[in-house]
Amino acid sequence: xxxxxxxxxxxxxxxxxxxxxxxxxxxxxxxxxxxxxxxxxxxxxxxxxxxxxxxxxxxxxxxxxxxxxxxxxxxxxxxxxxxxxxxxxxxxxxxxxxxxxxxxxxxxxxxxxxxxxxxxxxxxxxxxxxxxxxxxxxxxxxxxxxxxxxxxxxxxxxxxxxxxxxxxxxxxxxxxxxxxxxxxxxxxxxxxxxxxxxxxxxxxxxxxxxxxxxxxxxxxxxxxxxxxxxxxxxxxxxxxxxxxxxxxxxxxxxxxxxxxxxxxxxxxxxxxxxxxxxxxxxxxxxxxxxxxxxxxxxxxxxxxxxxxxxxxxxxxxxxxxxxxxxxxxxxxxxxxxxxxxxxxxxxxxxxxxxxxxxxxxxxxxxxxxxxxxxxxxxxxxxxxxxxxxxxxxxxxxxxxxxxxxxxxxxxxxxxxxxxxxxxxxxxxxxxxxxxxxxxxxxxxxxxxxxxxxxxxxxxxxxxxxxxxxxxxxxxxxxxxxxxxxxxxxxxxxxxxxxxxxxxxxxxxxxxxxxxxxxxxxxxxxxxxxxxxxxxxxxxxxxxxxxxxxxxxxxxxxxxxxxxxxxxxxxxxxxxxxxxxxxxxxxxxxxxxxxxxxxxxxxxxxxxxxxxxxxxxxxxxxxxxxxxxxxxxxxxxxxxxxxxxxxxxxxxxxxxxxxxxxxxxxxxxxxxxxxxxxxxxxxxxxxxxxxxxxxxxxxxxxxxxxxxxxxxxxxxxxxxxxxxxxxxxxxxxxxxxxxxxxxxxxxxxxxxxxxxxxxxxxxxxxxxxxxxxxxxxxxxxxxxxxxx
Length: 787
Hints:
alpha/beta, Immunoglobulin-like, 17% strand, disordered N terminus, glycosyltransferase, 4-alpha-glucanotransferase, EC 2.4.1.25, GH
């Protein structure tokens, strides 16, 4: 029998502030601060312990947590971490308060902290359903957690699948009481309610009806039914595959304009496929800043959902044929001489290349506007369909690019934070007026994205015959001054940056300048931004590498106005994100690779493996504690194996110590003795590598480190990796061609030509090189034996 109590308001959420959902962060220390205790013999009423029952890592048992510490723990902020030297770094209240404020919590004084904590603890009791429910596809009897006032009577639970079909309640549905809590004189109950079984994977709609105070009500949420594992190597019949990796911008060809383009990618794919490659991998293709092409790091994009339009091959644009002005300019002797200089350059001149492409593309777009834009022509309809499919995100990006171009150089206003205040939000009257007045320019930037996607789609179509195809790269975050952050400021934790704690490479820690996503807001939005991000990046990918994959579990955040050394780890909803990745991976038939280098939390790689995410193993780092290189049979099978990365020297440069010499020349060592010590270590590393190669028969026993030909070293090392059980071996073109200088030198900006070096050989002749042919044949032979 139910007694009438005080009126319960399910919409009451306390003070207006963004709130973290404690049930979301089950991986977070302190997420289990509220534990239920009950007696199965009693009336089902459970008392709730709101004191810390299991203190988070970094706290000693018996140590009382302050309200600020409890709020930080519930928000997923780790109270401490250990660096690679084993030293513990404890969070100070100032840092906790700064991060909480950046996440949207009111923490200006102790009263606000207490109110925010209370609101956070009560959140899951006050609302019927969470913003999203994720259940395992393999679960025979899934359940959903819901909350209702004790005076409410639960009615029907219904699932409407994404195909429109309805799954009504099963006759034997169960309802388990998990606990009760009194809030403002009203008693709330939390339940576990069974759902219909055999739900198909996908995004469905879950609704519940209930009666409260004589009135019928309902609540609804997104129900995500997701598989346990990603699409993966098991789908390739156990073959051991190999592929080629390239920095797209670095590709040379007889036709490009001084930067590798999508036509070069298409040609590389075709030639690699004929050579037996299963995949072609490239750097992130995310857009940068068309209005400032000298900003060139592919890992600091303005957006992660669209493409870098500098990679458009102007000569392959379908609309070029009908544009007389563009063709006249293109055919002129002066223009051809200009292009020849760009092609011959040893380093990429982003400004000059962008100026050439923008001039021609502007003419081509003008011709398109005259003949096709808004018209019932094949090109006009195709562009309209593209815009309809990609808006409103496309509209936001194009608006940002037009605004950036408009304000760039005015009063130092390169970043949107420096624009006039009325333009610093995407939905203001000023922005709408700007779009209306500059609609032609906004449409121009949309047009460029359309062209880029057309050309990437063509390369993906060529790659479709390969076992894997295009192997694309997803950056860990977006530049703070970019379009994504400007367009969705509620999703991002502004003024806070993703970075890395102090380590052997950077004793002061690292600030990457990338703005993190707020994990609370992400869940409040039903994970829709994350789902869209995966779809945008898997659309043309046979495999997708997630940079710094540990960020799915936790990210190192640098607080506003502080150095990287003051940063702390923030926990993310790992299990939810892994399930969504698995669902999108299976749907797109896209293998997922996690870049798990650096500080990897204990047990994280096991979790990756359980989710079917492939590890990423780099030869330089695969060592035993004594410094010996791991033998091929010690590598895992669920891994992509490679020699180096873009942040490390290619094998030829590593062997010759070019990276050490470069750092020495740039004064990056604190003391000259540091460089000398590293040179001594490198000498030992060279001997260790030769010992490993000799040990497996990749080199003869009498091999001399001092007399070893570089070509022999390159082939033997790739053959060594080919013997590993790793399902995919990626061979960087820089490694295969004996390039010495590395793509990016961490810790430098203008001192080193980062992201500017071009390959020494054009695509047209790469595969005709005798040494490369021999290397690839050797790898293919070893891979077939390993399989």
